[in-house]
Amino acid sequence: MSKKITIAIDGYSSTGKSTVAKQLAKKLGYIYVDTGAMYRAVTLYAMRKIMVTDNKVDEEAILRHLAFISVKFIYDEDLGYGIIHLNNENVEKEIRLMEVSNNVSKVAAIPEVRKMLVKQQHEIGKDGGVVMDGRDIGTVVFPDAELKLFMTASAEKRAERRYAELKEKGEDVNYEDVLKNVEERDHLDSTRETSPLVKADDAIIIDNSNLSKEEQFDKILSLVKEKTEA
Length: 230
Hints:
Number of helices: 9
CATH topology: Rossmann fold
Distance between the termini: 11 Å
CATH architecture: 3-Layer(aba) Sandwich
CATH superfamily: P-loop containing nucleotide triphosphate hydrolases
Protein backbone atom coordinates (compact mmCIF):
# COMPACT_ATOMS: atom_id res chain seq x y z
CA MET A 1 0.00 0.00 0.00
CA SER A 2 1.36 3.42 -0.98
CA LYS A 3 2.24 5.72 1.88
CA LYS A 4 0.33 8.99 2.23
CA ILE A 5 2.42 12.10 1.77
CA THR A 6 2.03 15.88 1.88
CA ILE A 7 2.07 17.53 -1.53
CA ALA A 8 2.85 21.27 -1.57
CA ILE A 9 2.01 23.14 -4.76
CA ASP A 10 3.25 26.74 -4.94
CA GLY A 11 3.60 29.16 -7.81
CA TYR A 12 2.33 32.26 -9.53
CA SER A 13 -1.32 33.22 -9.92
CA SER A 14 -3.31 31.67 -12.77
CA THR A 15 -0.93 28.76 -13.30
CA GLY A 16 -3.65 26.20 -12.66
CA LYS A 17 -2.44 25.20 -9.20
CA SER A 18 -5.95 24.62 -7.88
CA THR A 19 -7.07 22.64 -10.93
CA VAL A 20 -4.22 20.14 -10.77
CA ALA A 21 -4.38 19.99 -6.96
CA LYS A 22 -8.07 19.02 -7.14
CA GLN A 23 -7.28 16.37 -9.77
CA LEU A 24 -4.52 14.90 -7.62
CA ALA A 25 -6.59 14.88 -4.44
CA LYS A 26 -9.46 13.11 -6.19
CA LYS A 27 -7.14 10.57 -7.82
CA LEU A 28 -5.25 9.82 -4.60
CA GLY A 29 -8.14 10.12 -2.14
CA TYR A 30 -6.36 12.99 -0.39
CA ILE A 31 -7.68 16.11 1.33
CA TYR A 32 -7.51 19.17 -0.96
CA VAL A 33 -6.84 22.62 0.49
CA ASP A 34 -6.95 25.77 -1.65
CA THR A 35 -5.13 28.24 0.60
CA GLY A 36 -5.68 31.03 -1.92
CA ALA A 37 -9.42 30.66 -1.36
CA MET A 38 -8.84 31.23 2.36
CA TYR A 39 -7.10 34.56 1.70
CA ARG A 40 -9.76 35.50 -0.84
CA ALA A 41 -12.47 34.83 1.73
CA VAL A 42 -10.82 37.15 4.26
CA THR A 43 -10.45 39.74 1.49
CA LEU A 44 -14.14 39.43 0.63
CA TYR A 45 -15.05 39.97 4.29
CA ALA A 46 -12.86 43.08 4.40
CA MET A 47 -14.42 44.42 1.21
CA ARG A 48 -17.93 43.88 2.51
CA LYS A 49 -17.04 45.78 5.67
CA ILE A 50 -15.52 48.63 3.61
CA MET A 51 -12.04 47.91 4.96
CA VAL A 52 -10.72 47.74 1.41
CA THR A 53 -11.60 50.71 -0.79
CA ASP A 54 -9.94 52.05 -3.94
CA ASN A 55 -7.08 49.60 -3.49
CA LYS A 56 -6.43 50.89 0.05
CA VAL A 57 -6.42 48.46 2.95
CA ASP A 58 -7.34 49.46 6.52
CA GLU A 59 -5.08 46.95 8.28
CA GLU A 60 -6.03 48.04 11.80
CA ALA A 61 -9.72 47.51 11.10
CA ILE A 62 -9.06 44.06 9.62
CA LEU A 63 -7.03 43.07 12.70
CA ARG A 64 -9.88 44.11 14.97
CA HIS A 65 -12.21 41.84 13.02
CA LEU A 66 -10.05 38.71 12.77
CA ALA A 67 -11.82 37.12 15.74
CA PHE A 68 -15.12 37.42 13.86
CA ILE A 69 -13.88 35.78 10.65
CA SER A 70 -14.50 32.05 10.27
CA VAL A 71 -13.02 30.42 7.17
CA LYS A 72 -13.48 26.71 6.60
CA PHE A 73 -13.95 24.07 3.92
CA ILE A 74 -17.14 22.02 3.80
CA TYR A 75 -16.95 18.84 1.75
CA ASP A 76 -19.12 18.68 -1.37
CA GLU A 77 -19.85 15.08 -2.36
CA ASP A 78 -20.72 15.97 -5.95
CA LEU A 79 -17.49 17.88 -6.51
CA GLY A 80 -15.29 15.60 -4.43
CA TYR A 81 -13.56 18.36 -2.48
CA GLY A 82 -14.23 21.03 0.13
CA ILE A 83 -15.92 24.33 -0.77
CA ILE A 84 -14.82 27.52 1.00
CA HIS A 85 -17.27 29.03 3.49
CA LEU A 86 -17.01 32.45 5.12
CA ASN A 87 -18.91 32.61 8.39
CA ASN A 88 -20.98 29.60 7.26
CA GLU A 89 -21.80 31.14 3.84
CA ASN A 90 -20.70 29.46 0.61
CA VAL A 91 -18.61 32.16 -1.11
CA GLU A 92 -16.82 29.98 -3.68
CA LYS A 93 -18.13 31.96 -6.67
CA GLU A 94 -17.92 35.42 -5.13
CA ILE A 95 -14.26 35.12 -4.12
CA ARG A 96 -13.27 34.49 -7.76
CA LEU A 97 -14.49 37.88 -8.98
CA MET A 98 -11.96 40.29 -10.48
CA GLU A 99 -12.55 42.83 -7.72
CA VAL A 100 -11.39 40.31 -5.12
CA SER A 101 -8.41 39.37 -7.29
CA ASN A 102 -7.37 43.03 -7.38
CA ASN A 103 -7.17 43.20 -3.57
CA VAL A 104 -6.24 39.75 -2.28
CA SER A 105 -2.45 40.19 -2.46
CA LYS A 106 -2.65 43.28 -0.24
CA VAL A 107 -4.75 41.54 2.39
CA ALA A 108 -2.62 38.39 2.20
CA ALA A 109 0.47 40.48 2.95
CA ILE A 110 -0.81 41.33 6.45
CA PRO A 111 1.30 39.22 8.87
CA GLU A 112 -1.51 38.57 11.35
CA VAL A 113 -3.84 37.34 8.58
CA ARG A 114 -1.18 34.91 7.36
CA LYS A 115 -0.45 33.74 10.90
CA MET A 116 -4.14 32.97 11.51
CA LEU A 117 -4.61 31.06 8.26
CA VAL A 118 -1.27 29.22 8.36
CA LYS A 119 -2.26 27.87 11.79
CA GLN A 120 -5.46 26.48 10.25
CA GLN A 121 -3.52 25.03 7.31
CA HIS A 122 -1.13 23.25 9.69
CA GLU A 123 -4.05 21.71 11.53
CA ILE A 124 -5.72 20.46 8.34
CA GLY A 125 -2.59 18.87 6.95
CA LYS A 126 -0.82 17.62 10.07
CA ASP A 127 -1.50 13.93 9.35
CA GLY A 128 -0.44 13.91 5.69
CA GLY A 129 -2.58 12.68 2.81
CA VAL A 130 -3.13 16.28 1.72
CA VAL A 131 -2.65 18.34 -1.43
CA MET A 132 -2.28 22.02 -0.57
CA ASP A 133 -1.74 24.84 -3.03
CA GLY A 134 -0.79 28.45 -2.49
CA ARG A 135 2.22 30.77 -2.40
CA ASP A 136 4.22 29.62 0.63
CA ILE A 137 3.23 26.01 1.26
CA GLY A 138 6.63 24.47 0.58
CA THR A 139 8.57 27.25 2.28
CA VAL A 140 6.46 28.19 5.33
CA VAL A 141 3.40 25.98 5.87
CA PHE A 142 4.94 22.57 5.15
CA PRO A 143 8.70 22.97 4.62
CA ASP A 144 9.08 19.22 5.22
CA ALA A 145 6.53 18.18 2.57
CA GLU A 146 7.63 15.04 0.75
CA LEU A 147 6.81 16.54 -2.67
CA LYS A 148 7.07 20.22 -3.49
CA LEU A 149 6.07 21.66 -6.85
CA PHE A 150 6.52 25.21 -8.09
CA MET A 151 4.26 26.10 -10.99
CA THR A 152 4.97 28.84 -13.46
CA ALA A 153 4.09 30.10 -16.95
CA SER A 154 4.56 33.32 -18.85
CA ALA A 155 2.48 36.28 -17.62
CA GLU A 156 0.86 36.53 -21.06
CA LYS A 157 -0.18 32.89 -21.10
CA ARG A 158 -1.59 33.13 -17.58
CA ALA A 159 -3.51 36.29 -18.45
CA GLU A 160 -5.00 34.56 -21.49
CA ARG A 161 -6.24 31.71 -19.32
CA ARG A 162 -7.61 34.01 -16.64
CA TYR A 163 -9.32 36.23 -19.23
CA ALA A 164 -11.04 33.23 -20.86
CA GLU A 165 -12.15 31.98 -17.45
CA LEU A 166 -13.66 35.34 -16.46
CA LYS A 167 -15.41 35.82 -19.81
CA GLU A 168 -16.90 32.34 -19.48
CA LYS A 169 -18.36 33.41 -16.13
CA GLY A 170 -19.90 36.47 -17.79
CA GLU A 171 -17.59 39.13 -16.34
CA ASP A 172 -17.07 42.29 -18.38
CA VAL A 173 -13.27 42.45 -18.54
CA ASN A 174 -10.60 43.15 -21.12
CA TYR A 175 -7.33 41.32 -21.63
CA GLU A 176 -5.08 44.30 -20.82
CA ASP A 177 -6.65 44.71 -17.37
CA VAL A 178 -6.27 41.02 -16.64
CA LEU A 179 -2.60 41.06 -17.72
CA LYS A 180 -1.98 44.11 -15.52
CA ASN A 181 -3.60 42.31 -12.57
CA VAL A 182 -1.44 39.21 -13.12
CA GLU A 183 1.75 41.27 -13.26
CA GLU A 184 0.81 43.36 -10.20
CA ARG A 185 0.00 40.23 -8.19
CA ASP A 186 3.33 38.69 -9.21
CA HIS A 187 5.14 41.76 -7.93
CA LEU A 188 3.19 42.02 -4.67
CA ASP A 189 3.41 38.30 -3.92
CA SER A 190 7.16 38.18 -4.62
CA THR A 191 8.16 41.33 -2.72
CA ARG A 192 5.97 41.26 0.42
CA GLU A 193 7.86 41.12 3.71
CA THR A 194 5.90 38.21 5.20
CA SER A 195 6.22 34.84 3.44
CA PRO A 196 7.02 36.13 -0.05
CA LEU A 197 6.48 33.90 -3.06
CA VAL A 198 9.77 32.07 -3.59
CA LYS A 199 10.61 28.60 -4.87
CA ALA A 200 11.69 26.19 -2.16
CA ASP A 201 15.20 24.90 -2.80
CA ASP A 202 13.93 21.34 -3.20
CA ALA A 203 10.81 22.19 -5.23
CA ILE A 204 10.41 20.84 -8.76
CA ILE A 205 9.56 23.52 -11.33
CA ILE A 206 6.56 22.82 -13.56
CA ASP A 207 6.44 25.32 -16.43
CA ASN A 208 3.07 24.71 -18.07
CA SER A 209 3.24 27.49 -20.67
CA ASN A 210 3.08 24.84 -23.39
CA LEU A 211 1.61 21.86 -21.54
CA SER A 212 -1.96 20.65 -21.85
CA LYS A 213 -3.84 19.90 -18.63
CA GLU A 214 -3.53 16.18 -19.39
CA GLU A 215 0.23 16.36 -20.00
CA GLN A 216 0.74 18.35 -16.83
CA PHE A 217 -1.34 15.96 -14.72
CA ASP A 218 0.45 12.89 -16.05
CA LYS A 219 3.84 14.49 -15.35
CA ILE A 220 2.93 15.41 -11.78
CA LEU A 221 1.26 12.06 -11.07
CA SER A 222 4.47 10.29 -12.08
CA LEU A 223 6.36 12.46 -9.55
CA VAL A 224 3.85 11.52 -6.85
CA LYS A 225 4.28 7.82 -7.60
CA GLU A 226 8.04 8.15 -7.28
CA LYS A 227 7.55 9.47 -3.73
CA THR A 228 4.74 7.17 -2.57
CA GLU A 229 6.09 3.92 -4.01
CA ALA A 230 9.75 4.42 -3.10
